[in-house]
Design goal:
The protein is α/β, with parallel strands linked by helices. The chain folds into 2 domains: 130 residues, Rossmann fold, CATH 3.40.50; 149 residues, HUPs (Rossmann fold). Helix content is 42%, strand content 19%. A 5-stranded parallel beta sheet has the order 9-8-7-10-11, sandwiched between helices. The longest helix has 28 residues. It is globular.
């Protein structure tokens, strides 16, 4: 399963910004360790905490392969480098080389390990191509490789289909994720998961300060991560993977349509909800609006409703 940090080292966001990268001012900043669910709205995480470090070490003990992409904190500033340093020391000095395959990716992380003076010769693969490595593991095409393949196979499609899947944790959204695997060439598609944290009409029509928006985002972030993890687990059971997960604040229908245009999406797969009105009896107002205004095809999926089944309007 997915493992998220359980605690973080945090500092006051405004104080960090006022330090302007000055090492002495940054070293003087008050730091505290808090659990992941209790990060204050005024604070920013700058490193993982001791509980998370211990947990990662426990996981590494039984892992056969360790793939590490990107640092675990803002290691460029010494006070925030402890998490990255502790884990790097473990995988380079304490892990028996004959028992593990260690792959380190990412320009910033490789710089950190060399800066710490650790024995990089014990790492099987050390690469600055962090983003490329993640895209490769996600099954996304690498432009240079695609260009070479197209020279050998001119008739091959230039790009995979792009599928947008809005998720909110509801049964209808979960069924929509399941239905993606039944689509033609879904395995070659770029799948984007979108979670929209809804705001009321009043909240959307009034000015929102950056501080207030940051509070809203923090309040919805953990819920979004839970929903993304659930959706990715379902995709994995179907042999698929999402290529990106995005969380935004706003009106669900408007944000779905906006992202569909930006990608641009070839298909939207989403759950339909709602029980009022003639048309809304079969689809909610969000799905109705997306269906009416989307520039690409929309596949609506609905969990069989007991009332509709009894009425003979839907099969169980």
């Amino acid at each position: 399963g997915l493992v998220f940090p359980s605690d973080f080292v945090v500092v006051e966001a405004e104080a960090l910004e006022r330090a302007h990268g000055d090492p002495e001012k940054i070293a003087a900043l008050p730091r505290q360790v808090v659990v992941a669910s209790e990060i204050p709205a005024y604070a920013v995480a700058v490193d993982i905490g001791p509980m998370t470090i211990s947990h990662l070490v426990e996981l590494f003990d039984w892992a056969r392969t360790i793939f590490w992409n990107g640092p675990l904190g803002r290691w460029e500033w010494a006070p925030f480098a402890e998490g990255t340093r502790a884990v790097a020391e473990y995988v380079t000095e304490r892990v028996p080389a004959e028992r593990k395959d260690i792959l380190i990716c990412g320009d910033s992380l490789t710089q950190a390990i060399r800066h710490f003076g650790l024995p990089v010769e014990r790492i099987r693969h050390l690469s600055t191509g962090g983003e490329s490595a993640l895209k490769y593991l996600a099954g996304m095409p690498l432009p240079a490789v695609v260009a070479l393949n197209e020279r050998e196979q001119p008739s091959r499609a230039l790009s995979p289909r792009r599928i947008l899947v809005p998720v909110d944790g509801s049964p209808n959204a979960r069924l929509a994720v399941q239905r993606v695997s039944q689509l033609l060439d879904a395995a070659r598609a770029e799948i984007t998961l979108l979670y929209v944290a809804p705001l009321s009409r009043i909240e959307r029509s009034t000015y929102v300060s950056p501080e207030r928006e940051a509070e809203w985002r923090a309040a919805h972030q953990l819920e979004a991560e839970r929903i993304f993890a659930e959706a990715n687990a379902e995709l994995a059971r179907q042999g698929l993977t999402s290529h990106r997960q995005l969380m935004v604040l706003g009106d669900p229908a408007e944000e779905i349509l906006k992202l569909a245009d930006q990608i641009p999406a070839d298909l939207i797969v989403m759950g339909a909800r709602g029980r009022t009105g003639i048309f809304r009896f079969l689809m909610g107002s969000v799905s109705r609006k997306v269906l009416d205004h989307a520039k690409c095809p929309v596949l609506l999926v609905r969990v069989p409703d007991e009332e509709l089944v009894k009425a003979g309007l839907m099969e169980a």
